[in-house]
């Protein structure tokens, strides 16, 4: 996806929450990535088309992704002999800085792997390339509709998605069964906040005043605090920062009720009082060492990470997480609030097309689109998505994945499919200016106030009033939801 998937530390292998992942099949890595019959492939070994180079700035999308850059470049050239794909690696930590430096210099890469929620930022700067008129109908038809919509802003299409990852919770199967929690029913039918609150109370283990296991832990330190709130509020009738008539949504009274719930889970002992200091790495460590029954934000790939740690424990491998226990990871939906229908928060990340100060030629634009599609479909996408344990979002990817093996719990596969069926719709209709103001409120008001709320320094009511005041200041009385 991230949360695009815009989401997921040394323990997790990438700062926005993706974990250490299974190795790619060597057979897959040496098969020209399976895109030889991709839509739009019109080149042949005897092509006399003009030579061109397409540049791409790519982070470690999966644990093994960057190891195969040379083969990806080779496979693309074999597919299009007149074209060269030149990939520049970046870490998750410096990806944004590298990209912004190049963008500000007016010479960005042709392609960059970013979250769909970052598209509006670069559209506003005039540095993205609309590929609507260049992507072939066959390319577009290969994608599931919902994730492709996330790569749009207004009427423009700015790239191809790599995956759509549902943000969920993750549970320890053994602990949940000991607490009498019917996780299979929850996977199928979901649960309300009230049911969730009672369930996680049962997961708490105490010895006197000391808590050895919490019912629920979510990473909330720094920017991950917005993940926590964003995941919850979607299930409280606020799938986006703006309603369909473009009024700012977080002045809705349901927002206040979610803030009260956030505080209540800490006050009743189901979550640590020090929650505001729990980052993504510590959250995952607490899960693997049995210090929490349920964790979040949970991504499908966490099952793979848990499986790998289990294997290390069984083999007495010293690289297993210190103090960890064997864990059967179970995908769980986020609870719903106030009678609202489930709406899954999703991360849709992908290959976005950039342009420099000069208008690109039609030929170069078409070549960039070929490269984006090559990376986001077929065997390349299938291999990467299998590494991540995320669902395939192209027909060509699904077909390529048929010959690949993957060790996933079938109950989790079904649970993720259910979550994706409830995915919040993309909102390309939100004007760039409104989106920028909403991001400003999030950065300057919501995140710091939520940190204060988690630390017990302010009340839910105080935070709600602060968000409401900032929203009215930005959008006016008529530009916000009034209740």
CATH topology of the largest domain: D-Maltodextrin-Binding Protein, domain 2
CATH architect. name of the largest domain: 3-Layer(aba) Sandwich
The rounded Rg comes to: 23 Å
**pLDDT averaged over residues:** 89
- How many domains make up the 3D coordinates? 2
SSE-based structural type: alpha/beta
Shape field: globular
Indicate the topology.
Elements: H1 26-29, E1 52-58, H2 69-79, E2 83-89, H3 92-104, E3 111-115, H4 119-124, H5 137-141, H6 145-149, E4 152-153, E5 156-157, E6 159-166, E7 168-172, H7 173-178, H8 183-189, H9 193-202, E8 205-207, E9 210-218, H10 224-234, H11 253-267, H12 280-288, E10 292-298, H13 301-314, E11 329-332, E12 346-353, H14 362-376, H15 378-388, H16 395-401, H17 410-421, H18 432-454, H19 460-475
Parallel strand pairs: 1-2, 1-3, 9-10
Antiparallel strand pairs: 3-12, 4-5, 6-12, 7-10, 7-11, 8-9
Helix pairs in contact: 11-19, 15-16, 18-19
Region (Disordered): 28-50
Signal peptide: 1-22
Biased composition (Low complexity): 28-47
Keywords:
single chain; 483 residues; alpha/beta; D-Maltodextrin-Binding Protein, domain 2; 2 domains; 5-stranded mixed β-sheet; 12 strands; 41% helix; disordered N terminus; SBP
Report on the structure:
- It contains 19 helices and twelve strands.
- It is α/β, with parallel strands linked by helices.
- It folds into two domains: 217 residues, D-Maltodextrin-Binding Protein, domain 2 (3-Layer(aba) Sandwich); 165 residues, Periplasmic binding protein-like II (D-Maltodextrin-Binding Protein, domain 2).
- The strands form three sheets. The chain has a five-stranded mixed beta sheet with strand order 2-1-3-12-6. Strands 8-9-10-7-11 form a five-stranded mixed beta sheet. A two-stranded antiparallel ribbon has the order 4-5.
- Strand 1, helix 2 and strand 2 form a beta-alpha-beta unit.
- Helix 15 packs across helix 16 and helix 18 packs antiparallel against helix 19.
- The chain is globular and about 75 Å long.
- The N terminus is likely disordered.
């Amino acid at each position: 996806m991230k949360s695009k998937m815009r989401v997921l530390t040394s323990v997790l292998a990438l700062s926005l929450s993706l974990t250490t992942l299974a190795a790619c099949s060597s057979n897959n890595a040496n098969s020209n990535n399976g895109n030889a019959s991709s839509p739009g492939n019109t080149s042949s070994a005897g092509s006399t088309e003009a030579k061109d180079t397409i540049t791409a700035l790519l982070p470690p999308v999966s644990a093994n992704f960057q190891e195969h850059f040379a083969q990806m470049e080779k496979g693309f050239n074999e597919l299009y002999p007149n074209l060269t794909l030149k990939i520049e690696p970046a870490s998750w930590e410096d990806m944004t800085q590298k990209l912004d430096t190049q963008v500000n210099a007016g010479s960005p890469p042709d392609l960059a792997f970013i979250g769909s929620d970052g598209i509006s930022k670069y559209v506003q700067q005039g540095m993205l390339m609309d590929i609507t008129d260049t992507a072939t109908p066959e390319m577009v038809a290969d994608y599931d509709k919902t994730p492709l919509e996330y790569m749009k802003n207004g009427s423009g299409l700015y790239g191809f998605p790599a995956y759509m990852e549902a943000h969920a919770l993750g549970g320890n199967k053994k602990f949940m069964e000991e607490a009498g929690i019917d996780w299979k029913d929850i996977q199928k039918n979901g649960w309300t906040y009230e049911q969730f609150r009672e369930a996680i109370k049962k997961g708490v283990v105490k010895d006197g005043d000391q808590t050895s296991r919490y019912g629920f832990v979510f990473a909330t330190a720094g920017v991950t605090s917005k993940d926590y709130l964003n995941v919850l509020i979607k299930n409280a009738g606020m799938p986006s920062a703006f309603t369909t008539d473009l009024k700012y949504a977080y002045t809705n009274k349901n927002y206040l009720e979610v803030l009260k719930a956030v505080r209540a889970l800490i006050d009743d002992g189901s979550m640590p009082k020090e929650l505001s200091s729990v980052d993504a790495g510590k959250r995952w460590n607490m899960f693997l060492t049995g210090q929490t029954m349920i964790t979040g934000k949970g991504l499908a790939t966490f099952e793979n990470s848990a499986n790998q740690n289990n294997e290390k424990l069984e083999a007495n491998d010293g690289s297993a997480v210190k103090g960890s226990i064997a864990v059967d990871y179970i995908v769980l939906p986020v609870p719903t609030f106030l009678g609202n229908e489930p709406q899954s928060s999703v991360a849709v990340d992908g290959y976005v097309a950039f342009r420099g100060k000069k208008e690109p030629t039609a030929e170069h634009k078409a070549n960039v689109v070929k490269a984006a599609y090559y990376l986001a479909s077929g065997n390349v996408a299938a291999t990467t998505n299998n590494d991540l344990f995320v669902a395939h979002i192209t027909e060509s990817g699904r077909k390529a994945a048929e010959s690949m093996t993957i060790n996933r719990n079938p109950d989790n596969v079904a649970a993720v499919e259910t979550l994706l069926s409830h995915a919040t719709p993309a909102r390309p209709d939100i004007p760039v200016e409104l989106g920028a103001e909403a991001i400003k409120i999030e950065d300057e008001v919501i995140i710091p106030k939520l940190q204060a709320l988690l630390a017990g320094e302010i009340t839910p009511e105080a935070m709600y009033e602060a968000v409401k005041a900032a929203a009215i200041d930005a959008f006016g009385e008529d530009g916000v939801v009034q209740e």
